[in-house]
Amino acid sequence: MSDQPIYFDNNSTTFPAPETVEAILPVIGEGWGNPSSTHSFGQKARYEVEKAREAVARMLNCTPAELVFNSGATEGNNTAIYSALEGLPERKHIITTRTEHASVLEVVRYLGDSGYRVTELSVDRLGHIDLDELRNEISGDTALVSLMWANNETGVISPISAAGDIAKQFGALFHVDAVQAAGKLHIDLTEHAAIDYLTVSAHKFHGLKGTGALFVRKDAGYTPLLRGGHHENGRRAGTEAVLGIVAMGAAARMVSAKLDDYAMHMRAMRDRLQNGVLNTLDDVVVNGDQHERLPNTVNAGFKYIDGEALLMMMDAENICVSAGSACKSGSMEPSHVLLAMNVPLSAIHGSVRFCTSRYTSAEEVDELVQKTAKIVKRLREMSPFGHDHKPAGLTHEALQRHRDYFAQAK
Amino acid sequence: MIGYSVKLKDHFINPRNVGVLPDASVVGEVGSLSSGQAMKLFLKLDEGENIVAATFQVFGSPSSIAAASALTEMLKGKHLDTAARITSADISAHLGGLPAEKMHTCVLAMEALEVAYARARGIDLENELDEDEEFHVCRCYSVPEHKIERAIRDHNLTDIQGITHYTKAGGGCTSCHVDLKAILGRVHAEKPAEAKPAPAKAEGKPAFSNLALAQKIQEVLDREIRPGLAMDGGDMELVDIRDNKVYVTLHGHCNSCASSSATMKFFVQDRLREMVDPTLEVIDTTEHSAELHAPPMR
C-alpha cells in the first residue's frame, strides 16, 4: 500500500494545486497584514485580496464588485436564500428540487416550517427536473427559485437557462448552486442574466477548504448573514481569510486559462473508468443522465451489494470514493438524490460515486477498475442475492412501494 | 474508518465461514433487498444437536458482515439450545462493541439464528416472516410493526433514535416518526402489565443489564472520550463496573498527570451520567506519579 491514496472523491474535495500552494507562500511570509488596516502593510494584503477577486470574477465572467468572499458553499447558499427572501418580502413561496445539497434543502425546509411555502420539484429517472412542473408551480408569490448547476452525487446538469427564464417571467429571484460546476464547466454569467445569486467553493477546484464566493447580481437584494464590520463592502463581516482567498484566486486563474484541457482530461479518465467497470462487471447501472453530466463524475450502482461495505473494502486498499454524498457516508441513509430518482432498490444500497480530476492518471484508473472488480465480486460471492439468487419480482414491488409513498407524500 | 473496533474490521475484511453449507441441517434466512440487509445462516447439527459447522451469506454493511461472521464463530461447538440464547448484545460484545447506530446488524444476525432455531424445532414462523406482504411502518427500509414493537421491548428503547439504531426504521425519509412515537407510547403503556419486576430506573432512563451497561459505557468512552485522549497520546480503559461505580485506568500521557486526571474523572462522569445513567460514579484507579505538571504552554 502506497502512502498516497488513489483518490476518486474529487466532488468531495480536491487536493490543493501546486500553483495554489505557491501563491500563498509569500502571503504567509510577508503579506499577513489585515486588509482593513490603513497602513501600507495592511494594504499589501488588501491588494492580494482584490487581485484574487478579479481572478474569480474572470473565471465567472462577472464584475469583481459582484463577488462576496465567504467561508464556502454552505454560507453562500444560506446567504443567497435569506437575501432573496428579504429582497422580496411580500412573497412567501420558495421553489427548489429534491436533489439539492443539504445546504439548500435543509435551509428551505427550515423556512417551510416557519411560514414559507416550499415546493421541491421532483426529478425523473435520469435526475432531470421537469420544466413544466416548474411552470405549474411558480406564481407571483414565488420569491426564489434555487437550483443546482450540477448534482454532486450524479453529476447531472440542470437546465439553468430555461429555469432562469421561467423564474424571471414571474419576477422571482434565481439562485444557482454552482459548487460542482466551477472548474469543470464553463460558467459565463453574462450569458446567464437570469442568475441573481451563484455559489462557488474554492476547494472543489484545487483551492483551499474554508473559502468560497457568492456572486450577487448588482440589483439583487442582499442581506448579510454576519454583521459587525465593513468587510466585503459591508456584506460579510469578519477579517478576510486572506490565505484562502489568495489560493482561490490562483485556482481560478488556472481554470480560466485551461478549463478546456482540464475538462477533456477529466472526461477521458472518467470514460475509461466507466467503460472499465462496465466491461469487467455484470449488473452495474450508471445512475443519472450520461449525456447532460459533469465530465468527471460517474455514479455506479453495483447491484446486490452494500455501498458502505464496498467503500470500506476500498479504503482498506487505500482507495478513496464516496457512497451518496460525503456528509452521509457516516450514516446509513440511502442517498436522497438516488431515492428521488427512483433508482431501483437493488442498486441503491450499492451505489458509489467516482470522480476524476485534472490530475487523475490512466494508471490510477486501471488500478481502481481492477480493485473494484475484485472487491465487488468478493462481496457478491458473500451475498445471498448473488448471481444465481436474484430475487425476481421483489425489487419491482419494493420500488412500487416507494413510488406509491412518494406519490402520497406529494 | 468510522468508529469501528479492530475486531469488527478484522471480521469484515477477513470474514470467517462465508458461503453456502451444502449439507446444512437447517437454514435461517432474514431480511430483504428493500430493507438493505439480508442474511442466510447455515447450520450443521450432529445427532446430539450440537452445531458442528456454521456458515453465512450476507448482503449489507460492514458491520452486518462482521456480525454474521462473529455469530458463526460463537455458534460452533454449542448445543442448539445453548446457541439459541445468544443475543444481539452478545454478538456486539464479541465484536468489541458496535456503534449504536449499527446495532441493527447484530439484531439481523440474531434473527437469522432465531429462524434457524425455529425451523429446527418445527415452529411455524409464517407471521413473523412474511415481511414483504405486511404493512410497513417504515417504508424506506420495509420495517414491519411487530419488529419495532419487539425491539422496543427487548432493548428498552425510549426514543426514535433508539428504534432506528436497532431496526433501521425511521432512518430514511423520517415521515414515519409520528407512527414510531405512537408505537413507543403504546408499548410503554402496556409495560406495567408484564410480569417482570420493573428494574430500578433513574429518571425514566432504561436500566441496563450488566453486559449492556458495560457496552453502553464502553461505547461512550470510545466515541466521546478516547479519541480526545488519543490526540494527547493518552488512553482510558474500562476496568470494572460494580454497583453503578465505573472503574477506569488512564494510560500513556494521562497517567502521569494527576491534575488533569481529576478534571478527566469529572468530565467522563458527566458524559456517562448524561448519556447512560445519572447515578453512575467514575472511580479512577490509575496510580499517578506524585508531582504535578505545569500547565501546558499556550
General description of the model:
The complex is a heterodimer of chains A (410) and B (298). Helix content of chain A is 43%, strand content 13%. In chain A, helix 2 runs parallel beside helix 8, helix 3 (73-87) packs parallel to helix 4 and helix 9 crosses helix 12 (362-382). Chain A folds into two domains: 6-12 and 258-409, Aspartate Aminotransferase, domain 1, CATH 3.90.1150.10; 18-255, Aspartate Aminotransferase, domain 2, CATH 3.40.640. Chain A is globular. Chain A has helices at residues 18-29, 40-60, 73-87, 102-113, 131-137, 160-169, 231-234, 242-280, 307-316, 336-340, 345-348, 362-382, 394-409, and strands at residues 6-7, 67-70, 93-97, 117-121, 142-148, 173-177, 197-201, 212-216, 284-286, 297-302, 319-320, 351-355. In chain A, strand 5, helix 6 and strand 6 (173-177) form a beta-alpha-beta unit. The termini of chain A are far apart. Chain A is an alpha/beta fold. Chain A has 13 helices and twelve strands. With 298 residues, chain B is of the alpha+beta class. Chain B folds into three domains: 6-122, Sufe protein. Chain: A (Alpha-Beta Complex), CATH 3.90.1010; 136-192, Arc Repressor Mutant, subunit A (Orthogonal Bundle); 210-284, GMP Synthetase, Chain A, domain 3 (2-Layer Sandwich). Chain B has helices at residues 6-13, 62-75, 80-83, 88-94, 103-121, 126-129, 145-155, 160-167, 177-190, 210-231, 258-275; strands at 26-32, 37-45, 51-59, 136-138, 143-144, 234-242, 245-252, 281-284. In chain B, strands 1-2-3 form a three-stranded antiparallel beta sheet. In chain B, a hairpin with a 4-residue loop joins strand 1 and strand 2 (37-45).
